[in-house]
Amino acid sequence: MNVKPLSDRVLILPNPAEEKTAGGLIIPDTAKEKPLAGKVVAAGPGTSEIKMEVKVGDQVLYGKYAGQEIQIDGENYLIMKQSDILAII
Q1: Count of domains for the chain
Q2: With CB atoms counted within 10 Å of each terminal CB, which end of the chain scores lower, N or C?
């Protein structure tokens, strides 16, 4: 993949949605929640005002409506500003 985010943007591969509940019930596609965590696969260099806190390989939490969904090589990713990331886990 040859995607390099600009400025303070980050490319995230969302974690897969849960298939089963803790009790073993299978969750149908229509009821699955959008994942709120993922892995950073690319990060921009930052700006003169904004130092990049995240790096490639970090597991992060982000808001439910954060970022823009894009598809690269058949895989779904999110691209968002570093400020949309809530925490590194």
Answers
A1: 1
A2: C
Residue 9, domain extent:
1-16+29-42+63-83
* 6 within domain boundaries: yes
What is the residue type of 63?
Answer: G
DSSP category for residue 80 = E
CA distance 47 to 44: 9
E strand or H helix that includes residue 6: none
Where residue 25 falls among pLDDT bands split at 50, 70, 90?
confident
Does position 45 have pLDDT exceeding 70, yes or no? yes
pLDDT tops 70 at residue 28: yes
